[in-house]
């Protein structure tokens, strides 16, 4: 059995996919059972060959025998198609029994694949191949490639199908391929031969078993069966006769039914004809009335014709009016074309105006951006100038601080350490001086760059503003011109619309008048046509009457013939009655004979069955005899071999006796022969032997060069003896077995001969009975054939006579009816002849009137056609004008809509601008209030710090209290910042709902604000160390002036998180080396600090002296000088600029001054 995976793989293969594509409903093929049923494959084959030779493919319903029948039918049809139509031989056919009984097996799958391959080959080579190729092309590419390979396998390789006609394929028939085919055929032959043998043996065993149980019937039984057979045959004949009689009666009844139906149809037709004649009579009366009415109508028409002739003059006036309207239409078309051209120009100008408006908006945006940039640049310049002054002050203060620090350090070192640390103060002072020099140089460079940037920005801004103003003026002029043109075009369009409406009203009037004329003409044409039809009807009636007169004459002749036929019919009826009697007698005889024949046929069938059984027995006997003959032949061969072996034994015995005599002569015994050395010594000691040996050696040397010794021959003989003995033993055993088999066969043969003699005797008796029966049967058949022929002849004569009789009777009735109708028609004709004379006179009058009316109608029709053509032209021109007008109106509507949309957008933008302005003012107020709060907080914080510095002894005890207060202040500040952020988010959500020009303005305002904040955040390079506080934080900043803006953006990333704080506590006596205080900034969360690694070292330094100046506070990038000098720590360089030297800057202290800058997050 094949696995489910193999079956699924086969079902998803290209052959099954192709088969699905060929089906009307591919959903029918869902499983392998549907495919193995055979009905779907047969459907596809019917598409290839609609008229197959073998039919009978039926749904199997899981019945293996039906499935086998279906598959054999399909395979036979495919074979016939290949052999007859394609002239090809199928080498490998699928096994139908395997496909029917075991389709799920691996061999069954292979057979199914072969069947589908052969089907595909048929489809590709059949007359309808184009449809199948198109279906293959519709499949996926991979499937197509595999199907092409399959087709080549069938049509080109010559492995499945041989095509002997093609010369190209003949080359492919290599000897190896032919050898393969021959080997396969031989295997199949052996396989089927073995199958046949096994089935034959099974049959044979079953027949022998059956024959043993069967008892041979006696002679009396045979005779009894023969009698029964004769009886059955007679009954069968009787039944057949009855069947024939009933079938004849049925045929006669059918014929009578048909005749009655024919008579009924005739009567119906006659009734209809009579009704039609009645209708025709009524119609004639109506026509007479109608003709009278027409005569009156003709008089009226004449009066109307006179009126219409008068109206023809009016028609000329209408024609001239139509020509004038055409000219007006042409003028309108020309104006329309002019208007269209103008409209196109207006459209182009309008498009250009829209583009200019968009350009204007863009330019306005750029102006706003440039103005913002200019303001930001000015603010940057101011900030740089302020920073410059601060840097100068910080330089001076740092120098002062360095001097103080050096003095303090000297005194401290002298008191505590000694002269060993003097070098540190010298290094610090020298490094501070070098930094001051570098910073001064950089300051000068920055000032020069700022001045150049200011000049260039000022010039550029002025030039751009001038250009933009010029463009704005141009655009305003363009817009005014476009508006003027638009007004003019709208006036022209309104004028054209009025003219179009007037033309449409005129056209409607013309159409109404035209319709009136058309209706009148149609009425006249209808009257003329009606008169023509009446004229034709009268002519047809005259021809009909002449034909009826002719028919009446013929009917009179037919009546004479009918009387003669009646006499003949009476004679024929008498003859028919006689023939009926004879037929009845013959039928009774035929019944008897058929009964006898049926009984004989049954007997013969029984005898034939017995003969078949006897023949089977004879075949078995012949097989047994053949086996016996083969055994006899084998026995003879064995006996011959045995005699040959006996002769060989005798000869060997003689040889052995000779050897014994020769040994005795030598004085040796066979027992002593075992030691060859002793034997040789004895032989050598014997002189007689030596002499004989020498003589023999001399003879042999003379005869032959090489000869073997007696020992070698002896050994050979011994080996031969042993082999012969073994052969003899095997032969004896075989002989005994053969004897036993022969005895059994002889017994079986005797039994078979006895049975054969019995069967032969029974067979001879049966043959004699058969001969007797055959003679009887032949005689009966001859008699039956003669009687059946006579009966058929009589039947034919009867039918002919009956048909003749009926035909003549029908003719007689027809002639009677025709005579009656003729008499009635004669009377009608006399009346009609009188009416005809009157009608002719009226007809001649109507002809004259009709001609005059026809001429007038032709004139009217020609005029009407001309008017129609003119109307069509006018109508087409009017429709064109309507279309153009509709297009213009649509364009106008679109333009109005665009204007309205632009106005709406403008109003929306204005509202947004107002909203943004309002939110901006609110934010600024909040910012100012927050700044005030922050300044208050800083003042409080500074006071706390001063108290903490003064009260150094209580610092450690009160440190926790101050930290808590600081945390509270931070929380309050964070809450304030969160409120600002919420208000800012609200403003952003309002603006995001209405994105557009307003949103872009808000973004620009935000950018300008952030830039201003960034500028305000730019401070000198700071370096701070917290000695007393628990957390020491440092802020980093690069000292190079060229990368100030970029570094500020990088450093602000730490401040962008709400709640981050960086605080430095600096006194006037502190100076920190930049190399020692370089820090790595890390932002890990909301309340993380930027810690410096050198904070621990700075804590261990000396405390503040009493006479020092007030410290400078750095809080969240916010510097504050509180009542004295402040030293700003230089921020360390970033990681990517670590190799550059960092310099510290000092600023001079302004007494009791607080300078701060706060940046919103």
Automatic annotation (TrEMBL):
<feature type="region of interest" description="Disordered">
    <location>
        <begin position="1123"/>
        <end position="1149"/>
    </location>
</feature>
<feature type="compositionally biased region" description="Polar residues">
    <location>
        <begin position="392"/>
        <end position="401"/>
    </location>
</feature>
<dbReference type="GO" id="GO:0031122">
    <property type="term" value="P:cytoplasmic microtubule organization"/>
</dbReference>
<feature type="region of interest" description="Disordered">
    <location>
        <begin position="1068"/>
        <end position="1111"/>
    </location>
</feature>
<dbReference type="GO" id="GO:0005737">
    <property type="term" value="C:cytoplasm"/>
</dbReference>
<feature type="compositionally biased region" description="Basic and acidic residues">
    <location>
        <begin position="1019"/>
        <end position="1031"/>
    </location>
</feature>
<protein>
    <recommendedName>
        <fullName>HOOK N-terminal domain-containing protein</fullName>
    </recommendedName>
</protein>
<feature type="compositionally biased region" description="Low complexity">
    <location>
        <begin position="402"/>
        <end position="411"/>
    </location>
</feature>
<dbReference type="GO" id="GO:0008017">
    <property type="term" value="F:microtubule binding"/>
</dbReference>
<feature type="coiled-coil region">
    <location>
        <begin position="959"/>
        <end position="986"/>
    </location>
</feature>
<feature type="compositionally biased region" description="Low complexity">
    <location>
        <begin position="1135"/>
        <end position="1146"/>
    </location>
</feature>
<feature type="region of interest" description="Disordered">
    <location>
        <begin position="392"/>
        <end position="418"/>
    </location>
</feature>
<dbReference type="InterPro" id="IPR043936">
    <property type="entry name" value="HOOK_N"/>
</dbReference>
<keyword id="KW-0175">Coiled coil</keyword>
<dbReference type="GO" id="GO:0005813">
    <property type="term" value="C:centrosome"/>
</dbReference>
<dbReference type="InterPro" id="IPR036872">
    <property type="entry name" value="CH_dom_sf"/>
</dbReference>
<feature type="region of interest" description="Disordered">
    <location>
        <begin position="1012"/>
        <end position="1042"/>
    </location>
</feature>
<keyword id="KW-0963">Cytoplasm</keyword>
<dbReference type="GO" id="GO:0030705">
    <property type="term" value="P:cytoskeleton-dependent intracellular transport"/>
</dbReference>
<dbReference type="GO" id="GO:0051959">
    <property type="term" value="F:dynein light intermediate chain binding"/>
</dbReference>
<feature type="coiled-coil region">
    <location>
        <begin position="436"/>
        <end position="634"/>
    </location>
</feature>
<feature type="coiled-coil region">
    <location>
        <begin position="777"/>
        <end position="877"/>
    </location>
</feature>
<feature type="domain" description="HOOK N-terminal">
    <location>
        <begin position="15"/>
        <end position="153"/>
    </location>
</feature>
<dbReference type="Pfam" id="PF19047">
    <property type="entry name" value="HOOK_N"/>
</dbReference>
